[in-house]
Amino acid sequence: MWKTETVNAWEHALLYVNGSFRKVLPAGRYSFLTIGRRVQVHRIPAYPLYFPTQTIDVVSADRFALRLGVAVFARICDPRTAVETQNQYGQKLMIAMTEAAATAGAERTLEALFSDRKGLGEAVRDQLAGKIAELEIQAVTITTVIAPPEIRRMLTEVERAKHEGAAALERARSEQAALRSLANAARLLKDNPDLMRLRTLQALSPTGKGATLVLGQDAIAAPRPA
Fold this sequence. Notes:
This protein is of the alpha+beta class. The protein has helices at 79-84, 89-106, 110-115, 117-128, 149-191, 193-204; strands spanning 2-7, 11-17, 20-25, 28-33, 39-45, 49-59, 65-76, 135-146, 211-212, 224-225. It has six helices and ten strands; from the N terminus they run βββββββααααβααββ.
């Protein structure tokens, strides 16, 4: 009897005859004679695999406990090992990823863990490289950084204090600028008495409709009805 197999371009196909590995089959269509022997074709994905987010407990360098959501993209680089170890590369990856994330998290402060997720993901990827023989780690993404409620409150208070300090500094700068402007105006009016009289006229002009204003030599008389 004959057995027909079609191998797709997006998969690794491994040929086993009577339980022994023979070769990796390229993409194509194959027919095998099965009389007196057992022919098996095991298939493994050749495209990058996404391993869903796992939540991992870590302790930062400044001794804060939090949880990281870690997702991994990897490609099977050794299909024979993957088949002959019963596709256990997923479990191996989860164990290695937990260790790598805990190590990378312990090297960073709480602020660094929140502010540099990309760098943390690259550090985890570097530590995972070569740990699982069947896999080539292509990317590691830190999807979430979860802190306990008390740490979130503390971070909120710190940010509020920063913003309040910045607002107070800006108010002080505005007040100083206003005082400098008033001081400059006072010096200008003191050195130019005629300017003071003109400024008074400008101030009275909106309310001087239908009134007569008499200016003396040393003082300004109050307006009186026409």
